Amino acid sequence: MSAQGTGPATVPDTAEAAADPIAAGRGRGPLLRMIRLARPRGSRFALGVLLGGAATGSGVALLGVSAWLLAMAAQHPPITALSVAIVATRALGVTRGLTRYLERLVTHDAAFRTLADVRVRVYERLARTEPIRRFRSGDLVSRLVNDTEATQDLLIRGLTPPLVAVVAGGAAAAVCTALLVPGGALLAAGLLLAGLAVPLAAAALGRGPGRRQAEARGALSTSLVDALHGAPDLIAYGAMDRAVRRVEEADAELTRVARRDAGLLGFGAGATALITGLTVWGSLFLGVTAVQGGTLGPVPFAVLVLTTLAAFEIVAPLPAVAARLGAMRAAGERLFGVLDTPPLVHEPDERRTLPDPLPDELRIRGLEVCYGPDEPWALRGVDIDVRPGEKVAVLGPSGAGKSTLAAVLFRFRDPDRGTVELGGADITDYPRDEVRRAVGGVPQDPHVFTSTLRENLRLARPEAGDGELWAALRRARLADDVEAMPEGLDTEVGVHGARLSGGMRQRLALARALLAAPRVLVLDEPTAHLDPDTRDAVVADLLDAAEGCSTLLITHDLAGLDRVDRVYVLAEGRVLQQGSPAELAARDGWYRDALNPAG
């Protein structure tokens, strides 16, 4: 059934939220939502925390045992008294390296798999076209690459080290407390300051720079892509210098923010070093006092001091991670800004397939579309019929709603009210790609990829052979031009098809559409940006190539309309007139006025 209301739903239902961690996390902070993405691999991260705790604990224990061994050796005991410590030192050295390797292996594997899942979700979301139309291309690339990879950064550096610090730091403080209670308390206080207070301060100071860094990176990417893609026009109008200055200003801003970020990292490292030094000196003072008082022996004293020094290895990474939390949070907001873009096309719960042969009759009844609650209706109660084999034109001025109609037929958005039936079946009851098997065509601005003619054609049917490609080119009246090219189908078309004329790009898009063999062919403004002579030839070729298909020609131009069976005049989202070209030419109204502009 068709969607009802004034726009797509923005809140997921209970079933969707339960199945999708992204949908379930809406309303929470971006960092928590990024961590929730790793829930399917929670056991791997838990294992990584245990291995990390073992590696860090082995490093602390290695220095503690070494201190015991050196202090005992200074008393010249029998070698047998040192054998256990010697073996333990070797074992701890091996354990430290092995568990660190395993921890890196497990956590990185889990993080990379999670990142792969996130990338797939982003690609799937982009495939629905709504984010592509909402964000500028350069900014979208930055969100797709840098902001998506922030998930990996958070899981590896922001999730595992704090949990490892809790496990290993607690164990180190317990050992020092067993040796000397004041020394253990001092170590616990030092670890809390270095592992909690300093990171919190770094996180607070890094919130603003982190957000500005994500925004500056997106601005740089946007200005750079705009300058590269618009280079011909910028040069033609003498605006390239201004575009380059914008790129340089964006780069300078990103550099300034990066310097502030480096300053925060220096603050965290310096504060940690200061706290480490003060804690070690405090342990020395307490230990010396205890040795002089007879409550602590020389050997435990050495173990206490060196264990205290080694324990700060546990919290050393935390300030740097905390300083990056602002950037990670901003990256998460930008990432979920893409993933949370409400879909304009909703897939049905049941996957159905269209009957074979594919239907070729289109029936539109009461179609209404609105782009937002405060926006006017783009389409209001539109009724259109395209019978099997017919050529029907939808004509109207700019802003009439023609492109919105094409977007509905191409399944780029759902109707808000009304129905679009294909062979008697509502298209919203079928998956998008299933409908596109029967309804295809040429959008208003067809994209020509920076590749060869062959690869551009094979987008429609990857398994197509050269014979089928040439047949499609002949139907689109492009075969003669391609044959005249030295490399034929292997000709490179340039960036966005820059090496082809406007008419050739339209014909190439039509050949691609014909290769997909749709039953209903939709041609959306096929003569846009073409000169009058080219426009007439392209329309004639398109209509000739469409023989055998039910065709809907959406246009603002009257060229070639004498060859269609029926014309619908659309204005302000409503159908004002309908009938054959001859009937409308004889009837007062918009069509007759457009046909005879001089009166």
TrEMBL record:
Gene3D superfamilies linked: ABC transporter type 1, transmembrane domain, P-loop containing nucleotide triphosphate hydrolases
Membrane topology: Multi-pass membrane protein
Domain ABC transmembrane type-1 intervals: 46-330
Gene Ontology CC: one annotated term: plasma membrane
Localization annotation: Cell membrane
Signal peptide: none
Gene Ontology MF annotations: ABC-type transporter activity; ATP binding; ATP hydrolysis activity; ATPase-coupled lipid transmembrane transporter activity
A Pfam family annotated for this UniProt entry: ABC_tran
Keywords assigned: ATP-binding, Cell membrane, Membrane, Nucleotide-binding, Transmembrane, Transmembrane helix, Transport
Protein name: ATP-binding cassette subfamily C protein CydC
Species the sequence originates in: Nocardiopsis composta
Lineage: Bacteria, Bacillati, Actinomycetota, Actinomycetes, Streptosporangiales
